[in-house]
Structure formats: C-alpha cells, structure tokens
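Reading a protein record of the kind used here takes only a little practice. The integers have meaning only within a learned vocabulary of local backbone shapes. With that in mind, consider the following protein and its fold in token form:
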Amino acid sequence: MRRLATTLTLGAALAGCDGETPINLFTIEDDISLGMELRDEINGDPATYPVVPEADAPDAYDHLYRMRDAILASGEVTHADDFDWEIYLIDDDETLNAFAGPGGYIWVYSGIMRYLEREDDLVGVLGHEIAHADRRHSTQQLSKVYGVSVLLGVIFGSDPGLIPELAAGLVSLSFSRTDEADADEHSVIYLCGTDYAANGAASFFEKLLEESTVEIPAFLSTHPASAERVADINTLTEELGCSTDPNPNVPPWADVLATLP
C-alpha cells in the first residue's frame, strides 16, 4: 500500500456539520494519494464496478475528456493543475450515477449518459462532481465519518483493510446540504465561461423531478433534486449573466451515445 503524505492540516478533529466551518484532515498531497488508493480498489473490482478499459471504447473516452477539458480550461477550477482528473466509464445502463473521489478521480456510469438528453446536461453533472473534488468535499466528509484515529491508520499504512470500505462508501457518500449547494454553485461558475449552458445540472434535476418513477441515484438519496435546488442554479446562472443555450459546437448527443459499449 502506498503511503500517504504525512503532513496533515489539523485544526479540529472532525469536519463540521451543516452551518459549521468544515475541517479537512488532509493536505492536497493526501487527497491525491488517497484518491489513487481508492481508484485502484474500485477499478480492481469489475464485479461491482465494470469499468470499461479506454482501449475498448476510445471514442467514448475522447468525448468524456473533451467535456472534462472544457471545464478545466474555464480558469475557475482551483486544482486544475494539481490533480490528474482521470475519468473512468462504468458499463452499467441501469445506474444513474457519477461520482468523484479525492484527487480528482471521476467515474461516470453509462446509465446516466443514456438517461440525459444533451451533452450540456452531462457537462453540468461533471461540473458538479469536479466541484466536489476541487472543493475537497470528499475528504472533508471522510474526515467527519471516520475520524482522526481511523484515518491516521490508513495514512500511516497500519490499516490497509479499510480501503475497500472507503471505496464502497465513496460511491454513495452523503454530502451536507452546504456541500451540495456549493457543488451546484461551482458547476455554474465553471461552465459560465464555456460554450455550454451553465445551468446544465439543473436540467438533470428537472428531469428527475418530472419522472417520479425513476429510482433516485445514490448520490441524491440524502439531498435529492428539488424545485428549490433547480431554482437556485437557474437564479445564479441569470445573476452571473451566463448562457443557457446548448453548446452548438458539439456532435449530436446520439452520436456520443453510439460510442458507448
């Protein structure tokens, strides 16, 4: 097991609850190292996470990289140059999910891509997930859930058996309302200077609200889509003077979906 960086930012024992200042036990280097551990655990478990090798779907990965790069080129992502921002496609059409780990490792399920109706909506979701990593919400929540003594065991390599549990928890990590609102806000900020509709994430939530029979994705189980959440995204988009028009410079969404396995 690789050893995480040992310099920790210790201001208090745990991340705060809603309304409190969050405390993060990790440095940027720790985020990257922990993210690598979790990446290897997730990608090494094809029964649970059927990750598609890039060599098997190069065109699909090219599309995902193109969307990712547009967000990173916005100039608004704090750790755009610190993290590798690796993307992995999970071949599971029944799951509406995407999640990002510490250090900018991102997993996108084919199910959420097939559920969405345009590229701008997926870019909105990617912006939201990139924000969770960029704003370091994951390690804040892990700090809160597992506490100092347990995470120190991982950091110093004395408890490698915890890594599978951390990986499983990461997929459905329950962020605070503050973190979710922050990720929504930064998705708009990231996309505002691009050719994409800055409120793409709102379109995804609106569709979920309209289709009550759809099983709510794991990452929305605690803080689900709501009319208020959609309104907040649209209001911020308007306040910042961002475009809500679909990006005219992308291939038809059906062509993108045709590259999926």
Q: What stands out?
A: Confidence is low (pLDDT under 50) at residues 1-19. The radius of gyration is 18 Å. The chain has one domain: 28-257. Residues 79 and 134 are 6 Å apart (CA to CA).
